[in-house]
Amino acid sequence: MTDRNIFVYIETAGGEPVKVGLEMLTPAREAAGGGTVTAVIIDGQADHAAEEALRYGADNVIAAACDAAPPENTVGVLSLMAGKYGPDVIMIGSTPAGRETAPRLAARLGAGCITDVNALTVTDDGIVWTTPLFGGTILEKSGVKTDVQVVTIRSGAFKRSEVRDTAGGGITNEEITLQESGVKTKIIDSVVEISEQVNLEDAEIIVTGGKGMGTEEDFLKISELADVLGATVGATRPVIEAGWASRAHQVGQSGKIVSPKLYIAFGVSGATQHLTGMVGSDFIVAVNKDEDAPIFEVADIGIVGDAKKVLPIFIEECRKLKNE
Asked: Cα-flanking dihedrals φ and ψ of residue 121, to 5°?
């Protein structure tokens, strides 16, 4: 089958679509072949999110006016829509809520479920989904043979499609009433955790330091370059484990998958776990004293040298360019 009906559930926050929701429209289009990509939005204030979904690749949108906060509500709405419209695949973002929703929905529909997908391949036999295992050191390829497939897509694994004309897309409004007996969770209050906020997935420029920086003091100089460039600081897993940076900065399969316009790596050797988390960057600059470092295989510009010595020069030259 080359024509598939793909559902993409787009979470919203404050009426805005979450980042991975729009990113999923890219693999959805590939998986659909000549079929249809339908965005499903469960939000009473879904107008803007629906327009964004059409702009980034959805053929049409189903807007369900229902409180989607408790997982039972989301599962209930998606299962009703699946029964009515018959999707072949339901894509859900691998967010905290999405990871809770997907297995429940799969159980409700009797569907196969694959989580944390970061790549896919369409073959004559169906769709092959790629997922990382063991902290990203192994990539597993899997297929699903059930009539409906439920998959979660990792944020940052795919780039959003180019904005397009939405004239051909339509929005279908669905009024949903769920049975109270099926909703066992009620959200009384939400508490925001006070912690370091690092938005790696939306960053246009990321400057990452690896264990090759040598010491925590030298690693902290990465922040200086990031300030000059208006960039976000990234870190490799060894740096996180050494305690030089919080886990919020980690780039890689066991951290964040990123795809900025510019990615600069200092002292990063390029382990598979890290490379698969940043190889989608538009332009990659790597600095490492080992000329055989794997990161040079994906870098657009490679500088062979001691990262600790190159970094101060980099900062100085960037400051000069900024002040011109």
From this structure: -135, 130
